[in-house]
Amino acid sequence: MAESESGQDKTEDPTDKRKTDSRKKGEVARSKELNTVGVTLAGAGALLMFGGHLAETLMALMRMNFSLTREVIVDERSMGAFLLASGKMAIWAVQPVLILLFVVAFVAPIALSGFLFSGSLLQPKFSRMNPLAGIKRMFSMNALTELLKALAKFFVILIVALVVLSSDREALMSIANEPLEQAIIHAVQVVGWSTLWMAAGLLLIAAADVPLQLYQTHQKMKMTKQEVKDEYKDSEGKPEVKQRIRQLQREASQRRMMAAVPDADVIITNPTHYAVALQYDPEKGGVAPLLLAKGADFIALKMREIGVEHKVQILESPALARAIYYSTELEQEIPAGLYLAVAQVLAYVFQIRQYRAGKGKPPEPLKKDLPIPDDLRRDE
């Protein structure tokens, strides 16, 4: 198994990012055997489909160029005309074959890994000019694999050729006794079928080479555990950076929360460990008070200082403060189980405001035992 420069085994499957980066570099699975089989089969099929037309055009060219009149022979200008006409006939005859071969030669390479154009493959690599690296490649496992494939192709083609030629021996011998036109067409057919059978034999090589190339490409892209961790850090962010971002987000959230404290109707405290700031505005359509801010210890102390500075009513109710702190998120309404307790607090606050404005009597002290459900109660 391949090892990285750090000595760690590449035991991890490649990530999506690794696959994308390898593809950008042109490092994808390619099978030369698949390309060879595709082009050879296309050529054999083209001979069988268009071989008759190709043979007839060839015979027409021979008649036109081998049966010249004396006037044409002595006319220098006729040479160019005959050359142009012969060229047009030849191109027209081989055009279907060339088009088919071009299409297959374009499709076969992309059939395995799709279309890919990578500029990095066009860049010169001076490492390839290193003789030691060249010798290393000559005696590598990849070179041995290519040698075995070449020997396998040789023996497969040899065996198929011997079988095909032995089976077509009588047909080949009969060509010598056939008229010229019929012999040419017959020869094209024999060559086409022979090529088709030899290409079919190469399918065995391609069938073994395609999974081999996929496996080798996968092995080259495999990663060590450290590479996976480093990639995750690069893509998701280093832990210390993410921690710093979360800290800045918390600080920004705390600043927004502290800025909302002056808008509160009441701050309920523990009295020192917890503090929650509530606002009730029935004109906004809310059915319950909103939690504008909450905090513990230092944040709770800061909330009380801001409340004193902006003359927000501060009340001590340890059980209610803890219940709201643990059950309600910022800018959310308090749970239904705390409606009655908070309603008593807000009623007391509004009575204090009326009294201070000279519009009522002094309110009775707030009850210490407010109605708090057991499922919302939190002990110290």
TrEMBL record:
Keywords: Bacterial flagellum biogenesis, Bacterial flagellum protein export, Cell membrane, Cell projection, Cilium, Flagellum, Membrane, Protein transport, Transmembrane, Transmembrane helix, Transport. Its main location: membrane. It comes from Pseudomonas farsensis. The lineage of its organism: Bacteria, Pseudomonadati, Pseudomonadota, Gammaproteobacteria, Pseudomonadales. Residues 1-29, 358-380 are annotated as: Disordered. InterPro entries: FlhB, T3SS_substrate_exporter, T3SS_substrate_exporter_C. Pfam families: Bac_export_2. Gene3D superfamilies: 6.10.250.2080, secretion proteins EscU. Belongs to the type III secretion exporter family. The chain crosses the membrane at residues 34-55, 97-122, 143-165, 196-215. Residues 7-29, 361-380 have a biased composition (Basic and acidic residues). Required for formation of the rod structure in the basal body of the flagellar apparatus. Together with FliI and FliH, may constitute the export apparatus of flagellin. This is Flagellar biosynthetic protein FlhB. NCBIfam families: flhB. The keyword Transmembrane applies. It is a multi-pass membrane protein. It is found in: Cell membrane.
